[in-house]
What we know:
Strand order of the largest sheet: 1-2-3-4-5-6-7-8
Shape: globular
Strand content: 15-25%
CATH class: Alpha Beta
Radius of gyration: 20 Å
CATH topology: TIM Barrel
Number of helices: 11
Low-confidence stretches: none
Largest sheet: 8 strands, parallel, barrel
Number of strands: 8
Amino acid sequence: MKFFLDTANLDEIRKGASWGIVDGVTTNPSLIAREGRPLKEQVAAICDIVDGPISAEVLSTETAAMIAEGRELAKIHKNIVVKLPLIKDGIAACAALSKEGIRVNVTLCFSPAQALIAAKAGAYFISPFVGRLDDIGHNGMDLIRQIVAIYENYDFSTQVLAASLRGPTHVIESALAGAQIGTMPLKVMEQLFNHPLTDKGLDQFLKDYGKAFGTQPAAR
C-alpha cells in the first residue's frame, strides 16, 4: 500500500518525507487556502519535496473550464495528477483529459456507482471518502471493499485511493480491503508508528545494556 500525505503544508510534508515512507501528496482547495499561497505556487513547491504523484484540484465546475484548467495544472510538473470532482462535468473532463494522457484523480466519491463511472471515464485514481461516510452513520470501509471488488471484476486500471482516513484503524482496514493507496493527515501517519510495547521494549533493552556497561540510555 502506498502512503500519501493529505496536506498542503510544506513543513508537514518535509517531516513526513524525512521518514522515507511518503509516496505522494493529495491537496484540495481547502488545504491550499490554509497555506495562503496560490495553488500553482504551492503545488510546485510540494513537487520539489516529494517525488511522487501530487494531486492538484481544479477550481472550475464546468467541463470546458475544467479541461483548460487541468491542462495548465499538468504543465506545472510531471508528477501532477489533476483532481476533479465526481460530478457530470467532472467526469466528462476526466474522459477528455485521460485521452490526452493526463492523469486524473476523481474525488468526492461516496458510492460504488460513482466509482464505476469514474473508472469508465479513465480515472487514474478514485478517491472514496471513508470518514465522511462514517460521519453520517454509514460504514465507509464497505465502500472501499465494494469498489475494489468491482474494479477486480472488470480489470479496471483505476487505483483506489482511500481518503478521509481518520486514524490507524482506517488505514489498516483500507489496506486489508485492497486499496492501493491511503491518504492521511500527518498526525494519522505519525500514529501508525505508535505501540506501547515498542516503547516499553526499547526502554528495557537500553536499561539492561546500561546496567551491564554503565552507560545511560540516549534521550528520545
